[in-house]
Write a structure and sequence with these properties.
The structure is a homodimer.
Chain A lengths: L18 E2 L9 H7 L9 H18 L5 E5 L3 H12 L5 E6 L2 H12 L3 E6 L8 H11 L3 E5 L1 E2 L4 E2 L5 H7 L3 E5 L18 E5 L11 E5 L1 H8 L12 H7 L15 H17 L1 H22 L15 E5 L5 H12 L1 E2 L1 E2 L8 E5 L7 H25 L1
Parallel strand pairs in A: 1-12, 3-4, 3-5, 5-8, 8-9
Antiparallel strand pairs in A: 2-10, 6-7, 9-10, 11-14, 13-14
Helix pairs in contact in A: 1-9, 2-9, 9-10, 10-12, 11-12
Family (chains A, B): Belongs to the class-V pyridoxal-phosphate-dependent aminotransferase family.
Catalytic activity (chains A, B): glyoxylate + L-alanine = glycine + pyruvate
Protein name (chains A, B): Alanine--glyoxylate aminotransferase
Chain lengths: 389, 389
């Protein structure tokens, strides 16, 4: 053998128990962790098909939709974004992308890779888009698709969605919404708001481990996919065939790829937990968590990055970096208190801190613990900054 | 709320304990199942970066390579195939694909989606390719890339790889190999055999849960990726940026996507188990498992689909469907004995049965149990067929 057995793999595995209060993943409940440790099922086993059917019902519930083409992709949240672009856009198609943070930038990059004509509609970091602004772009640009983010985690901004769908349809445009960091925590009414495609990571407010993306297409979007004149580039997220494996079109379930039963079982349990609690109560728990965190942060003297509270995303609260060293704060929270807090991301790197309240962590005891850790870390990082001056 | 809470999610979760002896996934060891139920880690946590580094060493060991660009993609095995095509091929590039079963067909489909010029080199189902045949195609077609499968699970055929790499390089062609169902169980010497890219699912001989694909690119392949004149279509498996997150190029680890710590921890443990056993012993255990299965199948009167034993893939043994009803056999094995046996796939559907011996299941007790189940299921399915006549 040319390559010897790596010594590093002979050490025992050690996994610390962290409190994940960044922009996701969040911790998952012991019930979900227990579920994913159950025996593996084959991807063609009837029992796994049953679990997939249950997941579909769960997605329809949290998305509030009746769409047939509803399923989970075996990949992380970025895959959802890429599935939107590669399924709905053909080379030369015009896509309008709302950019007020990293996710609009990322979506623009992806749409460009699939040879779409990308038009960016921008707003200031920390702000969102009005119906009037959106209508102006729909009118002047006539795009095939509008992409917008309900919860922009890189800034902590919330985007109201009501009215955008009907506006888009008046201008013969499809509406795609990223609800990765918002669904489950804030109201989202896919059908009533006439949204054509929405996708979400499952490791945030939904309380599942990362690794899957849930996605749903309206009949209008499904029609666009089936009427394409060019093939979908990516086999892995080709909804024409992936939708068959998920039994979205008829009752055949041909093999498309090997799904991961452990992750599917975990998602099934996290959706069951929300079902048992009731979606409204699940959202309420996030709202209360946000209020508790906000109050605590105010008391500690933090300044909110999103001034206008109506524009704040309740799952990710962003605060301005000012009289403290942000790296030291993050390091102290992690090393001394096992609490993960996120710095900025992309355009906000170095400018803000982001504190997430999601899923299992949206409870008063955890938030209280985190606020105490933040108090200590803030003191430490202020002292550190003063000493450096 | 328009969509009420789904009643189906209020039932308790029930996961049966099956013995997965199809073409994968196989069962995973309790140690791996225990590991994946540990607390979730954030994708930017140092502890997870450490686990990713350990996984890289483990992949280098099982692939027998020193390649820097070695990592795991957060998606199932098909993603490995698609990553090969989308990273190494540009529109118009010629790719030679060895087709002797489903995987060559699938690879041709994917390469076509990325606008490559696809040339197929075919062999009979149940057979493989000689160096002479390969050289003829390299000489007459001058492809940029040759794609070939070491373990063709749809037929149970093994492809010897020694000599193909140097042959390809003599004709200025890259060599891509699918080792999804073979690595860990049969000899695979990536560097010595001059292979430019190889990928594998982890849910087969490596003993991890499905959901990740491991992949490695030679410096020659890496150079081709970095010298592309057109962008890589797919963000999710763009090795230029994914390789950064896996620390393959330098010491920055920018955020590319949210990895799944549970699956990474599971893969780490499965690689640790192989490291502790020793790769040679791990392969030997598969060889012995195959021999035991073969002897038992012969005793039961099964006829092997791959006549020439030197062409048989030891992880997936295929037998001919003849004097029994194959659907009844599969159903009886599953319903009465909890044993999953696979039917044919794609071109072999209805013609063969496939029995896998992989990873945790490659042990004498499991194989003995499965042979007993097969005996009963065969009797049942013979009686069923006779009664139908």
């Amino acid at each position: 053998m040319d390559i010897p057995a790596p010594e590093i793999l002979k050490k025992p595995l050690e996994i610390p128990n962290k409190i994940l209060m960044g922009a996701g993943p969040a911790n998952v409940s012991p019930r979900v962790l227990h579920a994913i440790s159950k025996p593996i099922l084959g991807h063609m086993n009837q029992e796994l098909f049953q679990i997939m059917d249950e997941i579909k019902e769960g997605i329809k519930y949290v998305f509030q939709t009746r769409n047939d083409l509803t399923l989970a992709i075996s990949a992380s949240g970025h895959a959802g974004m890429e599935a939107v672009m590669s399924n709905l856009l053909e080379p030369g198609d015009k896509v309008l992308i709302a950019v007020n943070g990293l996710w609009g930038v990322r979506a623009s990059d992806m749409a460009g890779r699939y040879d779409a004509q990308v038009v960016k509609m921008t707003a200031n970091m920390g702000s969102n888009f009005t119906l009037r602004e959106i209508e102006y772009y729909l009118q002047t640009e006539s795009p095939k698709l509008l992409f917008i983010v309900q919860g922009e985690t890189s800034t902590g901004v919330y985007q109201p969605l009501e009215g955008i769908g009907s506006l888009c349809h008046r201008y013969n445009c499809l509406l795609a919404v990223d609800v990765v960091a918002s669904v489950g925590a804030v109201e989202f009414l896919m059908d009533r708001w006439e949204i054509d495609v929405a996708y979400a990571g499952v490791q945030k407010a939904l309380g599942a481990p990362p690794g899957l993306t849930i996605i749903s297409f309206s009949p209008r979007a499904q029609k666009v996919i089936f009427e394409r004149t060019t093939p979908i580039k990516v086999y892995y997220w080709d909804m024409k065939i992936l939708g068959q494996q998920w039994n979205c079109y008829n009752n055949v379930r041909p093999y498309h790829h090997t799904t991961c039963s452990a992750l599917l079982v975990g998602l099934r349990e996290s959706l069951a937990i929300i079902t048992e609690a009731g979606l409204k109560n699940w959202q309420q728990k996030h709202k209360e968590g946000y209020k508790q965190l906000k109050k605590g942060l105010e008391k500690l003297g933090f300044e909110f990055f999103v001034d206008d509270e109506s524009k704040r995303l309740i799952t990710v609260t962003s605060v301005v970096v000012k009289d403290f060293d942000w790296k030291e704060l993050v390091k102290c929270a992690m090393n001394k208190h096992n609490v993960e807090i996120a710095g900025g991301l992309g355009p906000t790197a170095g400018k803000i801190l982001r504190i997430g309240v999601m899923g299992y962590n949206a409870n008063p005891y955890t938030i209280d613990y985190v606020l105490n850790a933040l108090k200590d870390a803030l003191n430490h990082s202020r002292t550190y900054k003063t000493a450096k001056l």
